[in-house]
Amino acid sequence: MPSDSNNLIPQTFKGLFFTTSLANSLSSNILFIHGFGDSGKAYNEVFDSKLADLYNLYVVDMPGFGSSPHNLSVNTMKKQANLLTAAIQSFSQQPIVIVAHSIGALIGTWMCQLLGEQIKYYFNVEGNLTEADSYFSSKPLQYDTPNAFFEDFSQEVFAKAITEERYRRYYASLKWATPQAMVDWATSSQAFVKDNLCGKEFIQLDCAKVYIWGAQDTPMETQDFIKQYQIPNKHFTGVGHWHMHENAEMFYKYIQERLENL
User: Fold this and answer.
1) Which fold has domain 5-134+192-260?
2) What global pTM score does this model have?
């Protein structure tokens, strides 16, 4: 947990749970969106970073993940993007920075489309650019029931967590996930993953943006896509999928520097 948890404020909006840290009412807001089966705990270190002194931080648990209950009325990623947009606008009208991880970056991209000029910067962290990136999020489609998928997937992640530190926090978040919520993300994302539409939508965004990646887990198809379309990007050597806690100090320092140099 962040070291100064007394400064953290829980907030809710129509079933969405946020952990927030407010620097100044006139500061920009930074919204953090987690990935498949994960939770806001993926971003714990941000509250100990310099960003917490400079910006208002909003770390969300999406419906069915972390502390947010599964919500049948918003059972697609598109609907959740609309809900999250309404939430962040209800908190403040200040400029918005989005940091979105993995398949959660689909939601981040759609929010950038919805919010337009209110977006100050978009940090896409190992998000889906090509079909190859859906190596986790497409797995529920291989099973007959959400529970059958969840049991196998949990065992797979647990086995990796035994030897790989980076999977341990993910496993802890996964235990809070609702199996149906994971299926919702898998089924509702497929049309946008197909034919690399997710990557094309990211390219078309007019806002300031960057794609953050490491070669350890980024498929070659996606690495080639980045080069082919000259996508603004930042490569961190030797870092895997979860830059936010595998490489926390450099990751949050990089975000701070990019925002300072706008």
Assistant:
1) Rossmann fold (3.40.50)
2) 0.96
